[in-house]
Specification:
- With about 400 residues, this protein is an alpha+beta fold.
- Helices cover about 55% and strands about 5% of the residues.
- It has helices spanning about 1-35, 40-65, 80-120, 125-150, 170, 175-190, 195-200, 205-215, 220-235, 240-260, 265-270; strands at about 280, 300-305, 360-365, 370, 375, 385-390.
- The strands form 2 sheets. The protein has a 4-stranded antiparallel beta sheet with strand order 1-2-6-3, with no helix packed on it.
- A hairpin with a 2-residue loop joins strand 4 (about 370) and strand 5 (about 375).
């Protein structure tokens, strides 16, 4: 038993700093991408709170291992000394606390990934699936909490009574089954969301494989959850193996929820460059790749075209290239009219509104507007055509 307690302490406190460092790296990476901590999004702040729940899981696991709980062989509690009895009550309270921290840690990590998937699928049919899965996760979490706190063990004080009158208050079997069902099924649905998008994305094969690998890490979370429940149900009284898998599942959830956001930091440290390898081309009608400063009518017009979209939107989330959101396709009201042609989308522009003033317009998928000469973006960009026109008239 002593070896099990020491082994659990070593494992848990070894994984803990990795999880915290990964959360910190995510926040730094997002700060680098967005330019300010004030621009961090809601999922970034959720992840800051996950650091609290992850800490709670690690502390609670070690408290349970040191003090045990009311999950005892029949007749064991009656032989306890007063100190052992007090320890078992204390440990049982931490088992209940551990479950709450574990539920919060697991579902908050799901929330962070779903927010990422929501931004990835804006304007795509998969966005509806993201909302459905999000609703399913909320429903599952609320139902599990109601059953855990108000149904499986009543009165609730039975959770830390030694010995218990209701075996469910010590074994947690019904709670473990219901939470596992919602946890594993929601994870399976979440894995299904990004993979078809990434498979169809117009990305270099190597980078497509990397992204698919990153978003497939959810399989490890599912495996950890299954093993967690397996050892909960099969290990004998007094075994601490299931606590190792609580640590493993919580750590894996934190790792998987943060890895997709680390590229800006990694690219800065290892000089990897932009993930999407943006290439800008400028040229005139002769197609020589140069810019002569002369365009239509011989002067005053230049054209810039980005053949590839930026890898992140204005909120710092990965863009999806699986579908072209152009020419009002999924753009809604306010989208730029962009009829398709063999050479790409065309941009219709009116004459100059003011003499001596320049007019700059950017056409792209999603809703766009021009306000005080600045581009305001509400949707994801897939193709961008930018034309600047100037008048020589004073």
């Amino acid at each position: 038993m002593v070896n099990s307690v020491q082994g659990l302490a070593i494992e848990s406190w070894t994984l803990y700093p990795f999880g915290i460092l990964l959360i910190a790296a995510r926040i730094i990476s997002r700060r680098m991408l967005l330019g300010s901590f004030k621009k961090l999004q809601i999922d970034d702040w959720i992840m800051v709170f996950v650091a609290v729940t992850f800490t709670g899981v690690i502390v609670s696991v070690n408290q349970v291992s040191h003090n045990l709980s009311n999950y005892l062989e029949p007749g064991t509690a009656e032989k306890f000394t007063p100190q052992q009895h007090a320890n078992a009550i204390f440990g049982s309270k931490f088992v209940m606390i551990l479950e709450e921290f574990m539920l919060a840690n697991t579902w908050l990590c799901k929330a962070c990934l779903l927010i990422l998937y929501h931004h990835m699928t804006l304007g795509l049919k998969q966005n509806k699936l993201v909302k459905i899965v999000g609703g399913y996760c909320i429903f599952g979490y609320v139902l599990v909490q109601i059953l855990y706190l108000g149904v499986w063990c009543r009165p609730i004080q039975q959770y830390w009574q030694v010995p218990v009158d209701n075996s469910q208050c010590a074994s947690y079997y019904h709670h473990l089954i219901t939470s596992a069902v919602f946890n594993i099924t929601s994870d399976l649905l979440m894995i299904y969301i990004p993979l078809p998008i990434l498979i169809k994305a117009r990305l270099p094969t190597k980078r497509k494989i990397v992204l698919c690998g990153v978003f497939s890490l959810g399989v490890l979370v599912i495996l950890s959850a299954i093993l967690n429940r397996y050892y909960n149900f099969t290990e004998p009284y007094g075994s601490l193996v299931y606590l190792n898998w609580y640590v493993g599942e919580a750590s894996t959830s934190v790792f998987v929820a943060n890895v997709p956001h680390l590229w800006p930091l990694l690219s800065r440290i290892f000089a990897l460059g932009a993930f999407n390898s943006l290439r800008r081309t400028t040229g005139n009608s002769s197609g020589n790749g140069g810019s002569s400063g002369k365009g239509f009518y011989g002067k005053g017009i230049s054209s810039h075209r980005n053949n590839r979209p930026k890898p992140y939107d204005q909120h710092g989330y990965i863009r999806s290239e699986s579908e072209e959101r152009i020419a009002n396709k999924g753009a809604g009201a306010g989208a730029w009219p962009l009829p398709e042609s063999k050479d790409g989308p065309a941009l219709e522009m009116g004459p100059l509104d003011h003499k001596g003033m320049g007019y700059s317009a950017t056409a792209a998928g999603g809703e766009h507007g021009l306000s005080n000469g600045k581009q305001e973006e509400q949707g994801g960009i897939v193709r961008t055509v930018q034309i600047r026109q100037y008048s020589n008239e004073a």
